[in-house]
Amino acid sequence: MSKVIWKGSTMLAPVPPALVTCGTMRHPNVFTVAWTGIVCTHPPMTYISVRPSRHSYAIISKMREFVINLPTSSMSKITDYCGMKTGANTDKISACQLELVEGSTVNVPVLAQCPVSLECKVCETKHLGTHTMFLANITAVQVEEKYIDSKGKFNLQQAGLLAYAHGEYFALGRKCGNFGFSVKKKH
Ligand SMILES: Cc1cc2nc3c(=O)[nH]c(=O)nc-3n(C[C@H](O)[C@H](O)[C@H](O)COP(=O)(O)O)c2cc1C
Question: Hey, how many other C-beta atoms are within 10 angstroms of the C-beta on 66?
Fold first, then answer.
């Protein structure tokens, strides 16, 4: 095997192309964020990194709340559109026919079409360079009921989530293992 060394870059993939909602039920906005992830289990914490030039940046800075909504692969066009247009001059919610549901712990609306939505409250803001990181506590998670089975297990693979890798969108593929399956004893 031979490797080529490139300079440091953002080449981590796949990542979730999240539809992040901000604002209120009366004045909502949505934009696409790929720079997100989980940073702590207890307390559950996440981050989004946002360029200060985004219309959403001022809204999140002021309200200190946002919601990370995970789109399905059938929402790839909506996800791209929300990352191309700005809420400064376009009502993306209406343009994409997105339905809003009230947040349970935040004033920010949740996207009804997304199977998973993480309600977040900002606890720290860190200016990193091109992007500013909003570090946040996940205060509630709204999940689509139809993916919860009779045992109460949430079958996320059935939701058909969207992935993003190096400028391209993908539908999540075939399941190839379970957490811990590599060390699980056979009965
Ligand atoms: C796939 C994808 C991922 C994106 N990820 C980010 C991101 O992580 N941070 C960011 O600031 N902008 C990101 N953008 C760009 C914003 O979504 C875009 O500038 C959007 O128009 C901002 O909307 P707003 O002005 O209504 O806030 C991404 C766009 C796309 C298409």
Answer: 30
129 pLDDT more than 80: yes
Ligand 1 site residues, Cβ closer than 6 angstroms: 17, 29, 31-35, 49-51, 54-56, 80, 83-88, 131, 164
Domain boundaries, given as residue ranges, for the chain: 18-171
36, 54, 56, 94, best to mutate for ligand 1 pocket (most atoms within 8 Å of CB): 54
0.70 cut: is pTM over it? yes
Residues shown for the chain: 187
* 21, 34, 115 from 31: Cα distances, Å: 7, 10, 17
Q: Report the distance separating Cα 137 and Cα 11, nearest Å.
A: 26
CATH code for the part of the protein at 18-171: 2.30.110.10
